[in-house]
Design a protein that fits this description.
0% strand, mainly alpha, single chain
């Protein structure tokens, strides 16, 4: 075996290694990269949801829900006050009718 044969064998082995590594890289890019990209999209979506569930001074979904809840509680108190006033007005009306119907 002379130096030329040894050089040919080494170059053949290196070429084969380059082809194998290139094939593995092509497989990884073709199969794993789309999965990795999809996982990145999922993480971005999760971060958006987490941002919406934390209060931030008025623009998150949680802040909006708290505001709606407070408005409902305030409205319930107002309705109770109106109902009490209306009941009192009915009592006055019934007393007036009963006194004047005799």
């Amino acid at each position: 075996m002379n130096a030329g044969d040894l050089t040919s064998i080494i170059l053949t082995l290196l070429s084969s290694a380059v082809i194998i590594v290139g094939g593995i890289r092509w497989y990884i890019d073709g199969r794993i990269k789309p999965v990795h990209d999809k996982i990145e999209e999922i993480w971005v979506a999760i971060e958006d949801v987490l941002k919406e569930t934390k209060t931030n001074g008025g623009t998150s979904m949680r802040d909006e829900i708290k505001f709606i809840k407070l408005e409902q509680e305030r409205s319930a108190k107002t309705r109770l006050a109106y109902n009490d006033k209306l009941d009192h007005m009915y009592e006055i009306l019934i007393d007036y009718i009963s006194k004047n119907s005799k």
